Amino acid sequence: MSGFQCKQFYVGHDRCGMKVGTDSLLLGSWVDLAGVQRVLDVGTGSGILALMMAQRLADARASGFQVDGVEIEPDAAEQAMANFAASPWHHSLMVHKADIHQWQPPQLYDLVISNPPYFSAGQQLDCDKRQQARLQQSLSIGALLELAAGMVHSKAKIALVLPMEKADEVALGAASMGWFIAQQLAIQGRADKPAKRVLLLLQQGTGETEYRSLTIYDQNNQYSQSFKHLTKAFYLAF
């Protein structure tokens, strides 16, 4: 499949190691955008998360918003540029083809969002680009948190989607840098299965975590009402 059609935009992803998937669609639908005008998408890939942020901010009538994506892989960066240029919000979207470790942000952000790498070095995937897109040796969770913390102001947020088993690691790493998990949404494929993914929203300081869960499929193997409600701004079928 060469791309993914959302209600207000199309995402080509045939040149990207990671295709548009449920993880990003859930994260982009869920993250709290209250008070957000400047967003950074780290490892933007096809640009799906950045485009979702632009649509939501435009729908909320957030004037003057800016969404930037950083991507190291040249083909993915160029595809994100094309996707941004074809979108209704092209004036408010920008791709920076760069290594996030050396990149200097043009501004401080209200939100850093990412579907980051989470496979360990040594695991082999079926595509070199997919391998690069998902290797922790390129960008560890700890490095991502440290880099993001230097690109935001004191009231900003960081939003991530990760395997469930990474939640405790992120909580510990975040706490050592003065952050805490404000919201955590566990994602179950079905009600009788354990959660395999988790959405995290981090804020600076200390506080209690709000724990919730969401099931993607109901007992009839159809999308659950909760999933439809969360993602209805993007999925054509809802």
TrEMBL record:
Which catalysed reactions does the entry list for this protein? adenosine(37) in tRNA1(Val) + S-adenosyl-L-methionine = N(6)-methyladenosine(37) in tRNA1(Val) + S-adenosyl-L-homocysteine + H(+)
Q: What is its EC number?
A: 2.1.1.223
Q: Which SUPFAM superfamilies match?
A: S-adenosyl-L-methionine-dependent methyltransferases (SSF53335)
Top-level taxon in the UniProt lineage: Bacteria
| CDD domains, A to Z | AdoMet_MTases
Predominant place of localization? cytoplasm
Question: How is this protein annotated for GO cellular component?
Answer: cytoplasm
Domain Methyltransferase small intervals: 25-124
- Signal peptide positions are none
Q: Where in the cell is it found?
A: Cytoplasm
Alphabetized, the UniProt keywords read:
Cytoplasm, Methyltransferase, S-adenosyl-L-methionine, Transferase, tRNA processing
Q: Which GO terms describe its molecular function?
A: nucleic acid binding; tRNA (adenine-N6)-methyltransferase activity
* Family of this protein: Belongs to the methyltransferase superfamily. tRNA (adenine-N(6)-)-methyltransferase family.
What is the role of this chain? Specifically methylates the adenine in position 37 of tRNA(1)(Val) (anticodon cmo5UAC).
**Stated name of the protein:** tRNA1(Val) (adenine(37)-N6)-methyltransferase
Recorded source organism is Neiella litorisoli
